[in-house]
């Protein structure tokens, strides 16, 4: 059995049983059954499933881990967390997140005015709001409005000009003034693809010189008592813990020094995000070299040591983990529409009475294939194909011969794979790179996995069923955009094997996991594909689940409307063209118009899975 590396990336959220991948919660429904239920309601195309219980699971893990570390070291500061909204702003994520963390000091982090409005509306009572990113006077004023509402809000300053604006707004609006945080430009640097947010050349934060200047500005304007937090963020998906440890030491010392300089209300160290998620499906290819408990212990221990050495009080710890909290709650399901080589069956072979010698030889190879000679004959036939394609280019064979060549090669590949199915995987491995199958998926990678396209971030992928059968095809995945970047290519270092299925007769679904962080809002409407139909799988008291918060993929007209097309005009023009068409009689016009209207009210993912009954 192939487990698609679930033991590396699965986080115990899912497990495999009876050939199916199941949710590791309550009644353990199989993902495929949830998919079927959604499809029975009429939803086609890709589906995005959310699992609110997995949001709670991560929040609990984070708090429990820090609370354990703090207890272990008798740490005297408190622990608080905020979720950075840029990682997932979707209401069907944010609202369940706030709901499940009501009892905790868990708030929201905002990086723009719109995000701040979400934070002001939905942060739980007494939970903190932090504001990062570049701020103008209006955004700072919003912070004062939040403070006036009684929110516990901290504005983190990225540069001295922002501090000047705060001082100015404080004069205009008076009390209450939000708490002020200073973002520090660290000397240490993160690692991983996202490591641009930290380091001496980073886009954000104050240098030591600017820090000193900031303190003196705060003092002069009598706002030093509002300065409560220092902050850093060394980048996302920090795969190696050592730069993080260095950064904590650096920031811990800055904390102690600033307190000694008179910043007596400085009480919190905000360590930003960066906590990594394990995405790998393959042994030895880890994306992360530490555990959460190692991480929390290191943070607590380092800050405790520094406080002790410098005789300052142990700071409250704030964390802004986004990826760690949200990645695993969402799964993208993509129906397989087609296997590229599927059209090459024996019926497609149209041999002539007299065939070119190489083709005759390939027919021979095909017929006399056996387990023993499989690899050798496969290589021969691949060589023959190369020669035959050259002969075609030179004009020596015709299109029918070329088609027969393609069909024969595919027939031979399939027969070889099926002959070797029960043998050592090694034999199959040897040929996989040359004989991949392309699986066409009813989804858009640009829309649903943008980090794959932009950063080559890989996501765990696996079929939802048939897991008790050995997958035999080395697979590359293609989406339905007409962009050649819409491909997840086969990689022999971390190969993907899928099952040989006839999708005209049976359905086959792939799940992409850990897609709940960053993907949704970064997704783009390339080719005007909209977001997938999404819903939450909510477990009830009795253990069963219900499909809730369903949000259908946008219709074609809605998408065009979003792009500021005048959709009324589009409808009018199309209708007029049909009505004026000389090719149609009155009944024909009505019918064509009816068909067109139905399509305009559907989304643009493909509806047919080849045959009509499975649609
Ligand atoms: C993006 C960001 C985060 C979240 O980082 P993750 O790696 O997703 O945890 C936290 N804080 C700040 C300031 C950020 O910009």
Q: What ligands are attached or bound here?
A: pyridoxal-5'-phosphate
Shape field: globular
- Helicity range: 40-55%
What percent strand?
15-25%
Radius of gyration: 30 Å
Ends apart, CA distance between termini: 30 Å
* Assembly context of the chains: single chain
- The structural class is alpha/beta
List the uncertain runs.
190-195, 609-615
The chain-level mean pLDDT equals 92
Q: What's the total number of strands?
A: 20
Main sheet properties: 10 strands, mixed
Query: In DSSP terms, counting alpha (H) and pi (I) runs of 4 or more, how many helices?
Result: 21
Description:
The chain contains 21 helices and 20 strands. With 615 residues, it is α/β, with parallel strands linked by helices. Residues 190-195 and 609-615 have low confidence and may be disordered. Strands 3, 12, 13, 14, 15, 16, 17, 18, 19 and 20 form a 10-stranded mixed β-sheet that branches. Bound molecules: pyridoxal-5'-phosphate (PLP). Residues 84, 86-87, 132, 233, 236-237, 272-275, 320-324 line the site of pyridoxal-5'-phosphate (PLP).
Key terms:
ten-stranded mixed beta sheet, binds pyridoxal-5'-phosphate, single chain, eight-stranded parallel barrel, 615 residues, globular, disordered C terminus, alpha/beta, 16% strand
Topology diagram in text:
Blueprint lengths: L5 H4 L4 E4 L2 E4 L7 H10 L6 E4 L1 H21 L6 E6 L6 H10 L5 E5 L2 H10 L5 E4 L5 H12 L3 E6 L2 H14 L5 E5 L24 H13 L6 E5 L9 H20 L7 E3 L21 H18 L6 E4 L3 H4 L3 E10 L17 H11 L6 H20 L5 H22 L4 H8 L4 E5 L3 H4 L1 H6 L5 E3 L9 E6 L8 E2 L8 E2 L10 E4 L6 H4 L10 E7 L5 E7 L4 H7 L4 H13 L6 H15 L15
Parallel strand pairs: 3-19, 4-5, 4-11, 5-6, 6-7, 7-8, 8-9, 9-10, 10-11, 13-15
Antiparallel strand pairs: 1-2, 3-12, 12-13, 12-18, 14-18, 15-16, 15-17, 19-20
Helix pairs in contact: 3-4, 3-10, 5-6, 6-7, 7-8, 9-10, 12-13, 12-14, 13-14
Bound molecules: pyridoxal-5'-phosphate.
């Amino acid at each position: 059995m192939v487990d698609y590396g679930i033991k590396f990336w699965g986080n115990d959220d899912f497990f495999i049983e009876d050939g199916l991948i199941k949710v590791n919660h309550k009644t353990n429904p199989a993902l495929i059954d949830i998919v079927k239920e959604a499809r029975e309601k009429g939803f086609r195309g890709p589906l995005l499933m959310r699992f609110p219980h997995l949001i709670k699971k991560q929040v609990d893990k984070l708090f429990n881990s820090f609370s354990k570390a703090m207890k272990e070291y008798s740490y005297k500061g408190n622990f608080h967390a905020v979720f950075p909204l840029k990682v997932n702003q979707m209401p069907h994520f944010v609202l369940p997140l706030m709901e499940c963390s009501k009892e905790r000091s868990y708030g929201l982090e905002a990086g723009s005015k719109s995000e701040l409005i979400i934070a002001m509306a939905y942060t739980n009572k007494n939970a903190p709001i932090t504001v990062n990113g570049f701020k103008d006077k209006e955004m700072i004023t919003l912070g004062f409005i939040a403070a006036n509402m009684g929110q516990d809000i901290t504005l983190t300053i990225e540069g001295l000009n922002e501090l000047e604006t705060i001082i100015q707004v404080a004069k205009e609006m008076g009390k209450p003034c939000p708490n002020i945080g200073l973002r520090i430009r660290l000397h240490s640097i993160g690692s991983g693809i996202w490591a641009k947010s930290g380091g001496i050349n980073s886009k954000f934060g104050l240098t030591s010189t600017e820090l000193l200047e900031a303190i003196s500005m705060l003092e002069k304007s009598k706002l030093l008592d509002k300065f409560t937090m220092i902050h850093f963020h060394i980048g996302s998906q920090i795969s190696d813990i050592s730069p993080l440890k260095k950064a904590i030491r650096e920031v811990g010392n800055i904390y102690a020094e600033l307190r000694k300089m008179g910043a007596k209300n400085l009480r919190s160290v905000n360590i930003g995000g960066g906590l990594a998620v394990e995405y790998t499906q393959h042994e030895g290819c880890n994306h992360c070299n530490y555990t959460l408990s190692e991480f929390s212990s290191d943070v607590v221990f380092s800050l405790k040591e520094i406080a002790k050495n410098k005789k300052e009080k142990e700071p409250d710890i704030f964390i802004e983990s986004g990826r760690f909290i949200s990645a695993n709650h969402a799964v993208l399901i993509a129906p397989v529409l087609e296997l590229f080589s599927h059209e090459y069956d024996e019926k497609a072979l149209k041999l002539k009475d007299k065939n070119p010698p190489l083709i005759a030889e390939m027919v021979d190879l095909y017929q006399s294939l056996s387990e023993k000679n499989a690899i050798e004959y496969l290589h021969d036939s691949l060589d023959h194909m190369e020669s035959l394609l050259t002969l075609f280019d030179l004009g020596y064979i015709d299109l029918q011969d070329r088609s027969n060549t393609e069909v024969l090669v595919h027939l031979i590949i399939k027969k070889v794979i099926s002959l070797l199915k029960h043998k050592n995987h090694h034999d199959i491995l040897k040929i996989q790179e040359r004989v991949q199958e392309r699986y066409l998926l009813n989804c858009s990678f640009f829309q649903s996995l943008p980090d794959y396209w932009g950063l080559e971030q890989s996501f765990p992928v696996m079929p939802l069923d048939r897991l008790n059968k050995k997958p035999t095809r080395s697979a590359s995945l293609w989406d339905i955009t007409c962009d050649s970047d819409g491909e997840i290519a086969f990689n022999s270092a971390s190969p993907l094997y899928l099952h040989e299925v006839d999708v005209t007769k049976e359905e086959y679904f792939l799940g992409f996991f850990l897609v709940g962080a960053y993907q949704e809002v970064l997704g783009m409407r390339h080719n005007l594909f909209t977001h997938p139909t999404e819903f939450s799988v909510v477990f009830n008291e009795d253990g069963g689940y219900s499909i809730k918060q369903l949000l259908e993929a946008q219709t074609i007209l809605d998408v065009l409307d979003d792009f500021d097309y005048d959709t009324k005009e589009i409808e009018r023009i199309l209708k007029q063209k049909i009505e004026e068409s000389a090719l149609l009689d009155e009944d024909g016009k009505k019918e064509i118009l009816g068909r067109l209207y139905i399509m305009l009210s559907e989304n643009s993912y493909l509806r047919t899975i080849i045959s009509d009954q499975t649609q």
